[in-house]
Design goal:
Layout (H helix, E strand, L loop, with lengths): L5 E4 L2 E4 L2 E2 H8 L3 E5 H14 L5 E6 L6 H8 L4 E4 L2 H9 L7 E3 L6 H10 L3 E4 L2 H14 L3 E6 L25 H12 L4 E7 L10 H19 L6 E3 L16 H12 L5 E4 L3 H4 L3 E12 L4 E5 L8 H5 L5 E3 L7 E7 L8 E9 L6 E4 L20 E6 L2 E6 L4 H4 L7 H5 L2
Parallel strand pairs: 4-19, 5-6, 5-12, 6-7, 7-8, 8-9, 9-10, 10-11, 11-12, 14-16
Antiparallel strand pairs: 1-2, 2-3, 4-13, 13-14, 13-18, 15-18, 16-17, 19-20
Helix pairs in contact: 2-9, 5-6, 7-8, 8-9
The protein binds pyridoxal-5'-phosphate.
Length: about 425
């Protein structure tokens, strides 16, 4: 295998040691394709950078929740950061031990809390006073102790897209530092809550270490204040958020991020938890799609492909850039095209005004950097079955989620009896 995970050999795009065309011939298009070697490499980069500092890497399941991805990471020692009962179910099914699971999110339901308490997760990252009260009541009903951290909103600008910025006062996430300290004092007096950690998360696709460090400095202030009033914390959960390169971005490497963090935190008693998602799996995956039609009008050229905004929503949702490569390298002249899907929305595009070689009906395209927030954000809009997911390991590949069928589309639906009776 070459150094790069996705590379051309004899003008054919490979994932590890497998030609992408070979997968397409067996699986059909569109499909997501993930490299297990990439996932492992990124996880190990984080893990090794911590050296002997006690730490836990809780992969953010929302970024990619395929069982094969979770299992690959779990077998290296990863835990999970979850935000729903469904993600907890997946994490457990993939073999992630419950004592390596942290639960974030502003809207945990009582049923979800009960499920997580029964599973014995490491801690709940509590985001409001009411949530803490409900958690306490739920724990009491089940005669369990809920380990908690308070998610602090450090009011730090992560300098990222406003939709994925989470650590500003105006965002719905976490509690102010003053509120957090009050909640810790209340929780410390509860028989059903065990104060375990402190957490923050300031956003996603962050391209500098500075915002993380600013947030960490603020959190250290709270830890010291709590410690002086006898409240000791075992964990500092620093969230996720490290960016990746989709094109020209030059994000810090996991090693840079961890070493910047350790400069501040290595001497502290608390073990460090991080919740990376995108930076582990984003560049592990591509979305492979087939060119259905080329068309042009007086203004534009279009490549109409068989993947759409329901399969990869990021371009439509955030105007996000994804590099697009031909699966079979072409020497043809370049042309400027919009790469669009079959969905009946003008917002259904994967790329706009992009220079690509002249291609023909039936040619394959790879949408790069699609391993995070790709399949997990996909939907059945326009009654399109969700695509297959494939994982590659060296010379082998396996379908790790089958393409949905038309029957999957209507699973659970019914026509009410009154329609059939004609009444
Ligand atoms: C609480 C929490 N943890 C972790 C993540 C993962 O972030 P990323 O994929 O940017 O690493 C997110 C993403 O929004 C989040 O909200």
């Amino acid at each position: 295998m070459k150094d790069e995970i996705f590379y051309y050999q004899d003008k054919s795009l490979y994932c590890e040691d497998v030609p992408v065309e070979k997968i397409a011939a067996e699986v059909g298009t569109p499909f997501y394709c993930y490299s297990s070697a990439y996932l492992e490499g990124r996880f190990k980069a984080y893990h090794q950078a911590f050296g002997d500092k006690r730490h836990l890497i809780c992969f953010a399941v929302k970024a990619n929740s395929n069982l094969a991805v979770l299992h690959t990471l779990s077998s290296l020692g990863a835990g999970a950061d979850i935000v729903s009962g469904g993600e907890l179910f997946r994490a457990i099914k993939a073999g992630i031990p419950s004592e390596r699971i942290v639960y974030s999110g502003v809207g945990k339901t009582e049923a979800e809390m009960a499920y997580a308490l029964q599973q014995g997760i490491l801690m709940f990252n509590v985001e409001s006073h009411q949530e803490m009260q409900v958690l306490e009541e739920t724990a009491k009903l089940l005669d369990k102790t809920a380990r908690i951290s308070i998610r602090v909103n450090p009011d730090v600008d992560a300098k990222t897209h406003p939709y994925i910025s989470t650590g500003l006062k105006k965002n719905k996430f976490g509690l102010s530092m003053d509120q957090a300290i009050e909640l810790y004092r209340e929780a410390a007096g509860s028989r059903w809550l065990e104060v375990t950690g402190i957490s923050f998360h300031i956003g996603s696709q962050i391209l500098e270490t500075e915002p993380f460090i600013n947030a960490l400095e603020k959190i250290q202030g709270i830890i010291h204040e709590l410690s002086s009033s006898g409240i000791k914390l075992s964990y500092m959960d620093l969230g996720g958020g490290l960016g990746i390169s989709y094109g020209n971005e030059v994000p810090p490497e996991p090693e840079d991020y961890v070493s910047a963090t350790l400069k501040l935190a290595s001497g502290m008693d608390q073990a460090i938890i991080i919740e990376p998602g995108r930076s582990i799996c984003g560049n592990s995956g591509i979305l492979v799609t087939k060119l259905l039609y080329t068309k042009k009008n007086s203004l534009k050229n279009f490549y109409v492909v068989d993947a759409a905004m329901n399969d990869l929503g990021r371009p439509s949702l955030y105007d996000a850039f994804h590099e697009i490569r031909p699966v079979s390298e072409k020497d043809n002249e370049l042309t400027t095209v919009d790469v669009v899907g079959p969905i009946c929305e003008t917002g259904d595009f994967l790329a706009r005004d992009r220079e690509l070689p002249r291609m023909n009906r039936g040619d394959l395209l790879a949408v790069m950097s699609a391993g995070a927030y790709g399949f997990t954000m996909s939907s059945n809009y326009n009654s399109r079955p969700r695509v297959a997911e494939v994982m590659v390991r060296g010379t082998r590949f396996e379908v790790v989620r089958e393409r949905e069928t038309f029957n999957d589309l209507v699973r659970g639906e019914k026509i009410p009896d009154w329609e059939e009776n004609g009444s």
